[in-house]
Design goal:
Layout lengths: L11 E11 L2 E14 L2 E8 L3 E2 L25 H7 L25
Antiparallel strand pairs: 1-2, 2-3, 2-4
Amino acid sequence: MGYNLSASSTGRQVSPSVQIDYLGGVVAGPGVADTFRSGDMTWNQTFMNAHQSSWAQTPADGFLGLSFDSISENQTHTVPETMLAEGLLAEPRFGLYYGTEFVDTGGKPG
């Protein structure tokens, strides 16, 4: 299950469906904008609603777009770029935890 534009009261489509070629795969979908919240922070975020992917065997819940502007869909920006522009991040630093848990933990930390 991914992002559902029709289920959002604040989401809107900002561009038609396009595709981005990555090394080893392709993703495709329309550019959309919506309001995001994390803790006490709220921001408007553009992103590709990737509903097609040649990476079908990737064991993941979805993509978090961290692409360079040179391959991003028009009018979309990465989460760190948007948060920096809106003063929500103090420095241009962003990290992801790549877990090594191979056992189903039921959505809780391993």
